[in-house]
Amino acid sequence: MVVLSCQVRSKENGTELKWEGSVVMSTINSLNVDPETKDELLTNNLTITSFKSVNSGVYICKHVNRNAVLSQASRTLKLVTETKEGFTFNEANKTESANLSCNINLPNVKNVTWIKNNIDLSDKSHYIEENNTLTIKSPERKHAGTYIARFFIEGSLDHYDCEVDFTAPPHVDDFEKAKNLIQDDNMELQCKVQGFPHAVVTWYKDDIELNVTEGGRVTLMPLNGYKNAHLKIKSVEFSDAGEYECKAYSAYFDVSSSKKVTVRVKDKLAALWPFLGIVGEVIILCTIIFIYEKRRNKRAEQEEINAQEAKNSETKAGLRRREKRSEN
């Protein structure tokens, strides 16, 4: 789609903007106010939804008042032919470098800059730009995406963007081996997917597609450009325990990648059981010590009584012997 915008400042009645060119459809003038100068801004946008060779040519925007031309500006449009070559990543057959290239049929190109995600690829240690070709050293799946070769035109502020794709089948990164939660905790699982074009992410629990209802405890959020890749469950219950699977399917490659993680949910009092066990052991130990000490004290007391009785018996026996000797 091509949009040509024409704008003038005007306070005169009867002023309008008109487009003339190869193929011009009816356009509408709109009047707005500049928030800084408070001047009236007259705007007329010419939109070409599907640009074809028949649309090539010179387009003129005329500022007129009662059929008198006050000023005008022109713009030349030309259908650009792209010759480009992308790259497809293959895990089983990795290469030392990946080459992306784009050539266009414009004779007055000044220079070319390669861009990804609106960032210039200035890291020369990893990227090499030469003759409309971008070389990526040691390409990996993480480098997949749309790259833009931005052509700057000599003697003009305009530029032309040529999109070149680095494609890669989807791959889901490993989860942690297991996730242990306590009842009423909040759970989050992030499905980190690499590859391009972006795959469709679907969640499963115990091999059944996860049922998500609006306003419920379970929600799916986007992650790194992948819709539904971030799973959240509020206040987990015992029924939330199970095996969760994230599957990323690419219609472009007709392949999928998936990873699983086991989620366990424990009783919210589970943390108290070890403490209660220790307390119980202490109580039992104290009871045993108490009973043992009580019995030991009782034995000691009985032994003391027995010793006293034995002593008294010996004393009485001694007195009787003395009495017998006295009688004799």
UniProtKB/TrEMBL annotation:
SMART domains: IG, IGc2
InterPro entries: CEA_cell_adhesion (IPR050831), Ig-like_dom (IPR007110), Ig-like_dom_sf (IPR036179), Ig-like_fold (IPR013783), Ig_I-set (IPR013098), Ig_sub (IPR003599), Ig_sub2 (IPR003598)
Record-linked PROSITE patterns: IG_LIKE (PS50835)
Protein's UniProt keywords contain Transmembrane: yes
Residue ranges, annotated region (Disordered): 301-328
A Pfam family per the record: I-set
Chain intervals with Basic residues compositional bias: 318-328
Domain Ig-like, residue spans: 1-78, 96-147, 170-262
Keyword line: Glycoprotein, Membrane, Signal, Transmembrane, Transmembrane helix
Name this polypeptide is given: Ig-like domain-containing protein
Lineage, top ranks: Eukaryota, Metazoa, Spiralia, Lophotrochozoa, Mollusca
Name of the gene encoding the protein in the UniProt record: 106078664
